[in-house]
Design a protein that fits this description.
This protein is mostly helical. The chain has ten helices and four strands, in the order H-H-E-E-E-H-H-H-H-H-H-H-E-H. A four-stranded mixed sheet has the order 1-3-2-4, covered by helices on one side. The termini are far apart.
Length: 234
Amino acid sequence: MSAARHSARASPALQALAEADPALAALSLWCRHRDGAETQTTGTTITYGPDFTTLAMHEQIGLAAHHILHVAFRHPARLADLQERLGGGFDPETYNLAADAVVNEALLCADHALPRPAVTLTALLSKALGKTLTPQAALAEWDVDRLYYALTGAQKGSGEAQGRARAYAQEQEFEPDVKAAPDETVEGQDVEHEARWRQHMARALEAGRQAGRGLGQIGHLLSDVPEPHTAWEI
């Protein structure tokens, strides 16, 4: 990665992340960080928009961590996989909502700050599905794919949960921030990438666990850690 291409906007936050959260700092090394028109994740590339630098430093750290987790959980690749499976029936905005809810809940449990308002897994489960869980229980039980199917009513053919989820998203001023890269579904690469990210995640979480802070404190709870195959039925 050339220094000229690395994000100047995110550099202070990424440097601070090394002390605040060793696990996320390790995972950040496997992401591409670039300055761009808006803050979002596309494939394994995170772009940081001009508004990123207007945030307080603790929020910059949290927002950078938010996008690092999107990459580490392989949300862009999994989004692309479901889109290929479901075709026109796939709703990328609901998938984005589910992904943000899981990531944000994990970061709050890891003692990170986030720009507000922000969607969370516990609130989404309560508002859309009528389920009341502690943050730890929610993270252990729900991964993004399972949550997407529950919200879209894939098992019951009901759109009620999805409607409630959209209302909650609107209340929280939610905007999708995950996109699949153009080459995200290249045949033969996906399984290799999954295995590689599982290794990255395992090593990073162990480093965090030994440090006793950040994501390493809750790594054992995360059901959304990449699996060998994308779940497509629950």
